[in-house]
Automatic annotation (TrEMBL):
Organism (species): Methylococcus geothermalis
UniProt keyword terms in alphabetical order: 4Fe-4S, Cobalamin, Cobalt, Cytoplasm, Iron, Iron-sulfur, Metal-binding, Oxidoreductase, Queuosine biosynthesis, tRNA processing
One Gene Ontology term, aspect cellular component: cytoplasm
PANTHER family in UniProt: EPOXYQUEUOSINE REDUCTASE (PTHR30002:SF4)
Phylogenetic classification of the source organism: Bacteria, Pseudomonadati, Pseudomonadota, Gammaproteobacteria, Methylococcales
EC number of this enzyme: 1.17.99.6
Subcellular location: Cytoplasm
Residue ranges occupied by any 4Fe-4S ferredoxin-type domain in the UniProt entry: 191-218
Top-level enzyme category: oxidoreductase
Protein name: Epoxyqueuosine reductase
Residues engaged in binding [4Fe-4S] cluster 2: 208, 224, 251, 254
Binding site for cob(II)alamin: 66, 144, 168, 179, 226, 251-252
Cofactor dependency: cob(II)alamin; [4Fe-4S] cluster
UniProt-annotated binding residues for tRNA: 233
């Protein structure tokens, strides 16, 4: 963060201007947070100590830099936190896809282009606009790309509250949105956090197919379908496979049942709309992709990060969870010999389920 903070005294007015410039970049809400995340840091340390992060070693790799913005980026005095809606379709369409055991369900955030580049580009433009107006200042933009406690910062910035499922919820917009941050050396006063409105509701806890929400506000990622299908590199534990159903990349169940998502708005970003038929394909269609087609069809998508091997692993589990059908069993048999050991294990498991009497 090479530049000194500007000396203009009217930072209250600057905050309102930043909100205007942020909305012009397509962000639905812009808030401001300080750098004190003490309470959140305590919860992070406890979560890591419980081993709930599983194989996500990066969660612990940077120590307390994740919860101390000024240590991650020296000179940081405040954080500009933003959200951008991504919901691409109606709840009805999502429920229909999830209820069809022959369909492949992809978490709705991943149906369009990878949000990281789009969000980072918009945040960079916002930072450049600020610099054009107030002069050079120190900053760095983040979009889930560094050790940042983005939900904690967003909560402190008044964008919503962290719900019992550990996602951020906004009273007027639900939770179908991405978050991004600008760490800055501008002394911008933090906004006031909003109250928690989860109340006695436990819909997200009760609906979780693998019981990953082990207590309100406490997620064991090792049981979470998003972790199992995206982050986990090895075999999916057998006891958890049936709960995955037809979800082949991520899971939206806890958001789908949240009462506050009745206020969620459909995205206005064309890049977040479904591509390559990802919202309506059948399991057998995806399972037939070879690696070249997988790479071609997932170009520019967040899905590509798991690679073809884990793609097939996830599909083998989903096919195994589908009602037995000769076509599904035959598709699995055709993958038994050519597959990697990881895929072969899951194909054999799925075939056993498909051919059970």
């Amino acid at each position: 963060m090479p530049h000194a903070a500007i000396s203009s005294p009217d930072f209250a007015e600057l905050k309102e201007r930043i909100r205007e410039w942020g909305r012009a970049q397509g962000f639905q809400q812009i808030g401001f947070a300080g750098v004190d995340l003490g309470e959140h840091e305590t919860r992070l340390i406890e979560w890591l100590a419980a081993g709930f992060h599983g194989e996500m070693d990066y969660m612990a790799r940077h120590g307390v830099k994740r919860s101390r913005p000024a240590e991650l980026e020296p000179g940081t005095l405040s954080v500009i936190s933003v959200r951008m809606d991504y919901l691409p379709e109606s709840m009805r369409n999502m429920k229909e896809a999830l209820a069809d055991p022959a369909a492949a369900y992809v978490s709705r955030y991943a149906l369009g282009r990878d949000y990281h580049k789009l969000m980072r580009r918009r945040l960079q433009r916002l930072a450049e606009t600020i610099a054009e107006q107030v002069g050079p200042f120190g900053y760095r933009v983040y979009t889930d790309s560094a050790p940042v406690l983005e939900k904690a910062l967003a909560e402190n910035a008044g964008l919503g509250w962290i719900g019992k499922h550990t996602n951020l919820i906004n009273r007027e917009a639900g939770s179908w949105f991405f978050l991004g941050e600008i760490y800055t050396n501008l002394p911008l006063a933090p906004d006031r956090p909003v109250a928690n409105h989860c109340g006695q509701c436990r819909a997200c806890i009760d609906v979780c197919p693998t019981r990953a929400i082990v207590a309100p506000y406490r997620l064991d990622a090792r049981r979470c379908i998003s972790y199992l299908t995206i982050e986990l590199k090895g075999p999916i534990p057998e006891p958890l496979r049936p709960g995955i159903g037809n979800r082949i990349y991520g899971c939206d169940d806890c958001q789908m049942v949240c009462p506050w998502n009745r206020f969620a708005r459909l995205t206005e970003e064309a890049d977040f709309l479904p591509r390559q038929g990802l919202d309506r394909a059948l399991l057998l269609e995806f399972f037939a992709w070879d690696e070249a087609e997988f790479l071609r069809r997932t170009e520019g998508s967040a899905i590509r990060r798991i690679g073809h091997e884990r793609w097939l692993r996830n599909l083998a589990v989903a096919i195994g969870n589908a009602p037995p059908h000769p076509d599904l069993a035959e598709a699995l048999r055709q993958r038994l010999d050519a597959a990697s050991p990881l895929v072969r294990e899951h194909v054999a498991w799925g075939l056993g389920r498909q051919t059970r009497s």
